[in-house]
Design brief:
Helices cover 43% and strands 13% of the residues. It is of the alpha/beta class.
Length: 318
């Protein structure tokens, strides 16, 4: 099985990818989307979203990273796709799943699910432009307002020549509300020659098992589950490989936060580390009750030094 770290705008950036892949279990990361309008973007934009390009497209732990593009102009997306693989991205991913209203109003992301023919044109243009040795993947939802055209959507991705498709098993209207409808995936992909990754509501190892059973997909994509449970990918891999893994303790999670690039980034101001730590604690509350107590303890702290002093009181190396 392959486990993919999902792209989550404003959350799963370079620093979070590095932290989570240091812990382990992931086979691929997909970047936050890079918006393409109607022209080729300068190289510095791709490097800003994907600093791993300076390491041949790998995280510090050696996990390959794939740049995700979002837009509606097929030729422009194709031109930028060629550039990202030249720079070192491990393939290119196309975003047809983002539910954000600002993105959809500019005819990007999930709104394109309403027009499978347009999706086909985009994917076909990118696939024709990118050398065959590089993967082209697409991330979709089951539909926009409903899933009435989900088969057309999947057919468009397949017929356009994409190598793989990640299916977030909810519509745009569903947003991130549970459940994820994994059982709707099998009829969509029956007889299709394409790699399929199931996504949505995988919070525990038991969810991964159930998702595989209901979706018939071997490969899975983890998003919010990995943020609330940082070693979830490692636990899933250990389970499916029949290995013993006892998991990280709360003190170990704090150690990883302290030793992440979020802590050592000189390009950010004094408030950055404090803000990112508080943001992540919001996800960690789901899995670790200690996160709420820690959040209250650092709530009013603003500097990296002050927050680090608190974290260091509890952190223990794994």
């Amino acid at each position: 099985m392959k486990l993919v770290l999902a792209p989550m705008e404003g959350v799963v950036d370079f620093k979070m990818r590095q932290l989570l892949t240091d812990i382990g279990g992931f086979d691929l990361c997909v970047t936050e989307f890079i918006r393409v309008v109607d022209a080729r973007l300068p190289d510095k934009v791709f490097h800003r979203y994907c600093p791993e390009l300076n390491n041949n497209g790998y995280t510090r732990a050696g996990t390959p990273v794939r740049i995700q593009l979002l837009g509606q102009v097929a030729d422009a997306l194709a031109e930028n796709a060629v550039k990202v693989v030249e720079l070192g991205s491990h393939g290119v991913d196309l975003n047809f799943g983002c539910p954000a209203k600002t993105v959809n109003r500019s005819k990007g992301g999930a709104v394109l699910l309403k027009d499978p023919e347009h999706m086909y044109e985009i994917i076909k243009s990118v696939r024709n432009a990118v050398p065959q040795e590089h993967q082209v993947s697409a991330k979709i939802r089951l539909g926009f307002d409903d899933d009435s055209n989900s088969q057309e959507i999947v057919d468009a991705v397949v017929s356009a020549g994409a190598n793989s498709i990640a299916i977030h098993a909810r519509t745009k209207r569903d947003g991130y509300n549970p459940p994820a409808y994994w059982e709707k995936i099998p009829p969509l992909i029956k007889g299709k020659s394409i790699d399929v990754v199931a996504n949505g509501e995988i919070w525990q190892v038991s969810d991964a098992i159930l998702c595989q059973q209901r979706s018939t997909c071997t490969d899975l994509m983890l998003g919010r589950g990995a943020l609330s449970h940082p070693d979830l990918a490692k636990k899933i891999k250990a389970h499916f490989n029949g290995q013993q893994y006892d998991g990280l303790k709360w003190e170990n999670i704090l150690y990883h936060i302290i030793h992440s690039s979020m802590h050592h980034d000189p390009s950010k101001d004094e408030k950055y580390f404090a803000s990112r730590t508080k943001q992540w604690l919001g996800y960690l509350k789901r899995e670790y009750k200690q996160a709420s107590t820690l959040f209250d303890e650092i709530r009013r702290l603003k500097t990296k030094e002050d927050v680090s002093l608190v974290l260091n009181k509890y952190a223990i190396a794994p």
